[in-house]
Amino acid sequence: MKMKLKFLLIVFFAGFSAYSQVAFDAVVSKETLGVNERLRVDFEMNKDGDNFRPPSFQGFTVVGGPNQSISKQWINGKASFSKTFSYFLQPKATGKLKIGQAEIEIEGTVYKTIPIEINVTGAVDLQKDPNDPQVAATENVHLVAEVSKSDPYLNEAFTVVYKLYVSRETAVNGWNELDAPKFADFWSQSIDEKQFKVYDGSFNGKPYRYVILRRTLLYPQKTGELTIEPLALNINVEAPTNRRDIFGMRITRPAKITVTAPTRKVNVKSLPEDGKPESFTGAVGSFDFDVTASKTKLDAQEALDLTLTAKGNGNLKLFTLPKPKLPSSLEVYEPENDQDVRVSLNGMAGSNSARYTIVPQQKGNYPIPPIRFSYFDPSTEQYKTLSSDEIIIDVENGPEVLASNDDNKVPVKAVNQFNYIKSDANLVAQNKDSFFASTTFWGMLATPVILIPLAILFGTKRRAYQNDVKGNRLRKADKLARKYLGDAKKSLGDQTAFYLALEKCLHNFLKARLNIQTSDMSKERISKLLQERGATVETTADFLKLLESCEFARYTPSSSDAMQHDYEQASRVISEIDKQL
């Protein structure tokens, strides 16, 4: 009898424990799906909880949810509870994706689901339900990328235009970008649409309406076959079904779809080597060239400006102007570069100029020889060279140029440069005193007494220095910032190495001064922290502009003058921020 009672108690407590156990699980509708299919994931729990936190769904787009459902049942005297959070996901790409852990707090304890791996394959054929608005929307909405030229030359402008075609029976209620093209191998400039205008057109021979979403001007920076990455959109539509109302009108239903423009490729041709002039510095387009001097008559030690200007249409921001060859007796300063460029669908238009400040040191006439400027014209597929006129600089007043003449040599007086050394030592013998009780004796005796406290103090300071993790990290960052600034100076002329070193310098400088990590270095956060610590708005803007120059240099070539200017700007801005902070 006692054995039966014990057995019943064990069964009862085991059943109660199983009933009271908390379950929190993630369930997916399928573990393998096509990139054009959707996935449902349910987070189910058998007890109510608080502070539900879903995973980030990295690699997916949430197209629906969270939808919440609660179920309570009482069957044969037993109560059951179920609560579910549901999401509908659209994969962004093929491959192995993972749905991370969700969290919920139940009765003071945090429970987590087990991550689930999803295998996303290529697009699959879907069963088409004529009454499904999703199917109708997919067939009636198309995103197209139109390229103006499929075989441009290196640094020749062309455009890519993204158009959204919608059938006349479908209405679009809005969209948002899922993935925007990066244009990594191009210099790019987006031409903003001030307002969206609807045009009438055709798609696959059928009448459609379309809107231009984006126009982008591109200058290829590499030769060969280059890929223009696709644009992907999430679109909310009202799509027609095969059902009709009592008046015979087709019933429309809301749907959310994902459309992607097809990937486009262009074959970029290299510039011909035959006939390439020595004065060619990378200009591609159609240009005029002019060289002017602010004055041609002046006195010695007065300054004049020599300005070289290239005007026209082409890659104005992507080439350097030729350097003038001037007489050595003219003191020439580094040029100031100025670009007045307008960007449109036809490319860059405007001017690129370099202004040299020249200071003659002596009286005389100084000819500035003609300066040649060469460019490649894609329309004629030929190089063209423009030349300026010779300019004579007349220096009227100043010291004469001294001609070298052997008869007019000035005698130099010989001077004995070793007169300060005495030839007689005048050595005097010293008396040898007893070492005991001498100054040396007492000094050696007192040395350990003085050095031991100093060693203890030094050891304490050294341990405190080593244990100061934060301070050591900041000091190391400051040291690295100065090191990389020196590396940038040594790399002037090598664009990749220079801007990589300069970017590392700026990042380590921020780590040392603002105590932030690289992952936290957004422009808004940097601006906010610098101004909170006392930096002026102008200095902050100059610092952010340097960071933009480092980013911009990854995609476009930069001249040695621009690198020199950025280095000097970085030295000045870092010094200013040090003073202001």
Automatic annotation (TrEMBL):
It holds the Pfam family BatD. The keyword Transmembrane helix applies. The keyword Transmembrane helix applies. Keywords: Membrane, Signal, Transmembrane, Transmembrane helix. Residues 1-23 form the signal peptide. The chain crosses the membrane at residues 441-460. This is Oxygen tolerance protein BatD.
